[in-house]
Design a protein that fits this description.
The chain has 157 residues and is α/β, with parallel strands linked by helices. It has a domain of 106 residues: Rhodanese-like domain (Oxidized Rhodanese, domain 1), CATH 3.40.250.10. Strands 1-5-4-2-3 form a 5-stranded parallel beta sheet. Helix 6 links the parallel strand 4 and strand 5. Helix 1 packs across helix 6 and helix 7 packs antiparallel against helix 8. The chain starts with a helix and ends in a 15-residue tail after the last helix.
């Protein structure tokens, strides 16, 4: 049995990770890059990168294929485009980027540090109405809020 962290480490061997401060240069070099946010809809509505495409990780495979209710035509036709996959911390995006590679996407990157790092770098995030978010509000939004029962019993002492 593989644990989550082992899956992530395996994906890191195949997927190029980029830091938030490199994304501006990537977009400037290729304005056609597809920025794909694989978080859940409530997370995306709370704050997201402007002009990013929401394709939740749970339905990503059908978002990038034709003939499904979830099909996003821009993604289904985008296997030859450069793609940056983003999430909250950079883990779901690694899994999603690897899946996209396996499904024929040729130039996929994952945002290392995720939107947490994006926000910490004071890069702009927007709410569902298009309003720019204050980075301090982003800090609270991206904070980890584990309940005791979600923690490994061995670590609780």
């Amino acid at each position: 049995m593989k644990r989550f962290i082992e899956l992530i480490e395996e994906c890191k061997q195949h997927v190029n990770e980029v830091f938030p401060w490199d994304v501006e240069d990537m977009i400037e070099a290729n304005p056609e890059i597809l920025v794909v946010d694989v978080r859940e809809p409530y997370e995306y509505d709370g704050m997201h990168v402007k002009d990013s495409i929401m394709a939740p990780r749970g339905i990503l495979e059908t978002c990038v294929e034709y003939d499904f209710d979830e099909t996003i035509p821009q993604l289904a036709a985008g296997r030859d485009k450069e793609v940056l996959v983003i999430c909250r911390s950079g883990n779901r995006s690694l899994l999603a980027a690897r899946t996209m590679q396996l499904m024929g996407f040729e130039n996929v990157h994952s945002l290392k540090t995720g939107l947490r790092g994006w926000n910490e770098s004071d890069l702009p995030l927007f709410d569902k109405d298009g309003n720019e978010i204050d980075p301090e509000d982003g800090d609270a939004f991206f904070a980890t809020n584990l309940k005791p029962e979600q923690m490994d019993p061995a670590s609780r002492g």
